Amino acid sequence: MNTNDVLDIAMQAILVSAKLAAPLLVTSLVVGFAISLFQSITQIQEVTLSFVPKAVAVAIALVVCGHWMISELVGFTTTLWESVPHFLQGG
Predict the structure, then answer these.
(1) What span, in angstroms and rounded, lies between the C-alpha atoms of 34 and 12?
(2) DSSP letters of 47-79?
């Protein structure tokens, strides 16, 4: 296992992490922006008004995207385990 293999695994892990985090982060961003806009229009400054809808939206996004997220993670892990003999050979 050489330096290029380690860097390749690290790059793939970062990409998979970004792909898995994207649906939840984008959902939280969109809902947070909408709630912030609503708060600025109505002059309501309640902390729970911004937290609870974001938590519910992220939970819904997790339910909707959960199967895809698990299949991506299982695919990455399977590929990594299948490449272990290649890494042990040093080639």
Answers:
(1) 33
(2) HHHHHHHHHHHHHHHHHHHHHHHHHHHHHHHHH
Task: Show pLDDT as tens, one digit a residue, over the chain (91 residues).
Answer: 788 888 999 999 999 999 999 999 999 999 999 999 998 898 888 877 888 999 999 999 999 999 999 999 999 999 999 998 888 886 5
User: Could you tell me if 57 and 27 are in contact, meaning their C-beta atoms sit under 8 angstroms apart?
Assistant: yes
The Cα diameter of the chain in Å comes to 65
Q: Cα–Cα–Cα angle for 55, 77, 21, nearest 5°?
A: 25
Sign, Cα dihedral of 72, 74, 75, 76: positive
pTM of the model: 0.80
